[in-house]
Each structure stands twice: as structure tokens, then as C-alpha cells.
Amino acid sequence: MFFDHYLWAYLIAITLLTVSPGVDTLLVIRNTVRGGFRDGVLTSFAICLGLFVHAAVSAGGISFILMQSAWAFSLLKLAGAGYLIWLGGKSLYSAFRGQSGLKLEAGNIKHRQVSAWTSLREGFLSNVLNPKTVVFYMAFLPQFIQPTDPALLKSLFLAGLHFLIANIWQLVLVLMVGRAAVWLSRPRVGRYFDSLTGSIMVFFGVRLGFDS
């Protein structure tokens, strides 16, 4: 039921999707720079938790309702766009104030103190409020669910595989950013990085808000 001959195709497709740069990748890198390994890992975990929400919504057919109801989908889209713009604005403000998350003190890297709740909230909401993920799961998952399969359980199973693959990939990103911590701790580099990530997030948010 779960391990059928369609599974390999799903694994290949979802892996290619995972490694493609996007908002999730950007947020994990941004938060790792801000708060270090713990911040990046918690953000990644929360992002991937959102996949189960999308899987359950897709299996329940709520995604179809959102796609058919213009006002409901528009409301979700604007909420997601506003949240991305807010995250991007925070990075731009940090760049303006010169408050990069990394500091180099006596040869040791010092990260900004960020609560676990902040990391989890930012990661989870950035994924759940992304309407493109809703549409993607609605269109993608049914291709790998047979009529005889229990739709909810199979959807959650497939989301679980996506959860594992995405967390592994994003952990690699966290470790890569950690290796570059000394370079990123330079005040000018940190300011440029915050400006770049903030601008891209605002761009994604504005594009999402105006995307028909």
C-alpha cells in the first residue's frame, strides 16, 4: 500500500524539488546566520512540520475548496505575502542598524540569542502560509495515491518522506553556513548578507501578493 512501484518516482521528484532554491532555503540560511546551528535546525524542523499540514489539507480536499474560492485563496496568499515581507523587513532593519547575527569576539563566533519559539514559529508559518505549497501538494500527491489507498494515511506517509529529505538537505545547508561563520561575522559582510536576504524575501512576498 505504502511501498508501491510509484514510490521511487516520488522520491526522485520530491528530492529535486527540495534542493531547488526557494523561500525555505533562504529562511534556513538566514536564521543560521542569525542564531547559529540551533536556530537553523529548529527553523528547518518547523518548516518541514508544515508539510504534514499541507498533506492533511490536501487529503481532506480543503485545498480544492481554497483553489475554487477566490476570496479564501486570495486571503491565504496575502497572509503569506505579508509574512514574508515582514521577515524580509526585519533583515533589512538589522542591516540598516548594523546588527548582524554573528559577532567575532576574541576569536570566537558569537550568535544572536534567539528563543526556540521564534525559530519554530518563523519556520512553521513561512511554510503553512505559502499557498503555492498548498496548490503543489494538491496537484502532486494524488499522482502517487491509488484509489484503494487510505488517502489521509498515504498523504501523511508521503509528507513524512518529504520531511526526512528536506531536513537532511537543510541540515547540510546549516553546516555549510557554519563553516563560513568567520567570513560572515565580518560587519560589512553581515550587513550585505542581511540586505540581500531581506530584499529577496520582500521580493518573494510582493511577487506572491500580486501573483495571479
Characterization of this structure:
The chain has one domain (24-210). Helix content is 78%, strand content 4%. The chain contains ten helices and two strands; from the N terminus they run αααααββααααα. It has a two-stranded antiparallel sheet with strand order 1-2. A hairpin with a 2-residue loop joins strand 1 (102-105) and strand 2. The longest helix is centred in the C-terminal third of the chain and has 29 residues, at 151-179. It starts with 6 loop residues before the first helix and ends with a helix.
In short:
Helix content is 78%, strand content 4%. It has 212 residues and is mainly alpha-helical.
Mean pLDDT: 78
Distance between the amino and carboxyl termini: 37 Å
Number of domains: 1
* Strands side by side in the biggest sheet: 1-2
Features:
mainly alpha
Outline the fold blueprint.
Layout: H1 7-19, H2 23-35, H3 37-60, H4 62-68, H5 70-97, E1 102-105, E2 108-111, H6 116-128, H7 131-140, H8 151-179, H9 181-184, H10 187-210
Antiparallel strand pairs: 1-2
Helix pairs in contact: 1-8, 2-3, 2-6, 2-8, 2-10, 3-6, 3-7, 3-8, 4-5, 5-6, 5-10
